[in-house]
Amino acid sequence: MNPVWVIVAVALEVGSCVGYVVIFRRFFDQVPSGPARELAWTEEASGALLPTGGVGALAIGGLLLRQAGMSTRQIIERSSALFFFTSAANVAALVGGGALLAIGATRGTDTVTLAGVPILVGGVSTGVTLALPVTVKRTPGRLWPTWLVDMAAGIDGAVHALLHPSWRLLGAVAYLGFDIAALAAAGHAIPVDVLVLGYVIGYIANLVPVPGGFGILEAGLAGTLILYGAPPTQAAAAVIVYHAIAFWVPSLGGLIGYARLRRGPTREVTVPSTEAAALSPTPARAAG
């Protein structure tokens, strides 16, 4: 593999990590800027290592925020908003990749199933997610679990963020887009629709409880890329190089972030009790 493309992939992965820091600070805007960046990097390292991926990363972040003084309700609301907003970017990529495949814009393997299923899954998952807060609001007398109510508030927060745009929302695009681009740099001859669909669908394999996803993620990504028409040898090589980069870049950054977070002075995080609409940034928050 050309070393230049490997360097490009590393740079793109760093850009993806920075994108997560940016979107993290959108939803945790009242956490001081330094600890917020360190916490975001720590979450990314946890996501790279833990078998539960992004959910496990949010759990680690929530634990650290709880120790800093944020209430459980606030953590669930804001973490849910962050999770659902970044997941929305994945769903948009899934639907977009399916559409590109359906119209034959690139050289991916096009069948009704391969093109239609991603679009169907994206549409259904979006509808179910948006229906949750509506259902909770319309049945206030029902004894919903507290965590479900807080999660519904988080979904409302993600929608509120979309309807009240901030430049930090571009972090979600960078977080996903640069990561896919890193895979593209490792296998730069693979068609765009194949890359997008192979990435989004292939990452489902990361839910299998294997630390770091070693072996599992490679199989999921390479298998999906090949299914959608990528050359087998090139897909396997690209995925192996990509996973090495996607593991070590956030892991090393997170290690530094966690060390700085634990070494720094204790800072209490005080966030006012929120409803979903209160997840928008406060006017007095300094930019940067």
Give me the secondary-structure topology:
Layout: H1 3-27, H2 33-49, H3 54-67, H4 72-103, H5 112-138, H6 146-163, H7 170-186, H8 192-202, H9 216-227, H10 232-263
Helix pairs in contact: 1-2, 1-4, 1-7, 1-10, 2-3, 2-10, 3-4, 4-5, 4-6, 4-7, 4-8, 5-6, 7-10, 8-9, 9-10
Describe the structure.
This protein has 288 residues and is mainly alpha-helical. 71% of the residues lie in helices and 0% in strands. The chain is built from ten helices and no strands. It is globular. The two termini are 38 Å apart. Mean pLDDT is 82; it is low at 271-288.
Q: Residue ranges: pLDDT <50 for 5 or more in a row?
A: 271-288
Backbone CA Rg: 19 Å
Mean pLDDT: 82
What does the main sheet amount to? none
Order of helical and strand elements: HHHHHHHHHH
Number of strands: 0
Rough shape?
globular
Q: Span between N and C termini?
A: 38 Å
Number of discrete helical segments: 10
β-strand amount: under 5%
Q: Pairing-aware structural class of the strands and helices? A: mainly alpha
Percent helix, as a range, is over 70%
